[in-house]
Write a structure and sequence with these properties.
With 499 residues, the chain is an alpha+beta fold. The chain is 25% helix and 24% strand.
Length: 499
Amino acid sequence: MKPLNLNKETCNPISSNCVIWQGPDLPCIKLCKGDTVSDVVAKLATELCAILDMLNVENYDLSCFNITACGPQNFQQLIQFLIDQICALQNVEPPAPPTTGCPDCLVTVNQDCFSELGEVVQLVDYVTAIAAKICTLVLQVSALQNAVLLLDGRVTILEGYFPLPAPTEPEIIPQACLGLPLVLTPISTVLDTLSTEFCDLLSATGTSTEIIAAYISQCVNSTDDALVSQYSAPGTQMGTEYPTYVVAPSSLADAITNLWLAICDTRNAGKQLTELAAGTNTIISSTTVAVVGNDQVTTYAIDTVIDVQNEGTTLTTVPQSINFVGDLVDATAVGDDVTVTISTFGAMAAQSTPTNLSSVAFGLGNELCAQSNQIISQIYDDDNAYDPVTGIWTCPATGRYNLSCYVHYTNNIGDGWYDSLNPGGMFGVGIFSSIGCVTYCANWMTVMGIQKNIDISAQAAGYVITAGTQLSVKVLNQTGYSYTSTLGDVIRFSIERVK
């Protein structure tokens, strides 16, 4: 046997065979005084192993006891088990197990449910934990049963509502303007009728874009002279004569307000009476009590009239005629009649859907005034001065005229009139002499971004035009996109004589 202290330098290694047992003899293990320590240790180890083998419960066959629960785990439990079995055979009641201290066995703990107890625990502790868990589960099951009963009652109530009644369409009483009976009517019927009426209204009034384009094309501005006061207070502006005149209309209501004021101004200028009473320098205005052709005729009880502006001509034979609006006359009232004849001023208005218009390149020879006359079909013309075949208006009489033109072109393809590769395309419209390039009014629009519509107007007020002068509307397209005639687009041309 190799000594344990063989490699320790401070000890002198001595073999156990050289050391002898000095104790007493021990017959039970056959140990005698004088035996070597090697023999003593070997005998003691042999006896210890035999004892341990004897005390190992697994070395005993207990199958005859039909143990179904936990069996003895150590020798002490084995002895107690045997005592209990002997007591049972002798009809002796075994003592009750202690309530404290070590229970009868250790058990392996289910880690899924009782990991907090550890891996092994005494049976009593395990049973106690199981009981607590069962009590908790019982309480939870009771609560769940109560919840199920409550839900069962609610489900019973809900089932009482089934089957649900078939849904019905809401009904309303429509307004009389829709033309439907004034009774409860399905809302889908009312909506269909309302949609139809709205589409009809849209067709009649035009789109919001068209309405905006129409009212921004106003040709009578607040700074223009009011016709009603052109003789009594010359130079009075429309905004002064009519305080409600909207300077910059921004809605259809504003445009209609201005339109009616302009119409009333023109009408009142034709109806106002400047009586030829006795006096000096009375102004002849556009007075009327009867209309004969294109002349306005008024009869006054006046004896002598002197036409001051026409070389002082005295009209002594009555009735006589004065044919000039704005003439100054001297009158002596003695009861005889004199007839004042004032020529009315004609007007022309033309409107239609524009015809196709090709785009032309920039360059000399492609000026706006060099383009073809626009042919406009819908015409109102007092003097029959407009030719719808040539698009030319011929001035019927020398005087002052208000000129106006307007176009609305639509391009709904892609970016509309905008060409991102060649920006800066232009549209122009104006009124020109039918031959040559005499410009009466013109306006331009440059397309600098995505734009679907072109809206341009041009006006000239109080322009002196001599009889026989011929005018026409011309349009120039230099956007790079040709225009195709589109329903809803419009071109307008109007001329009105004001003096």
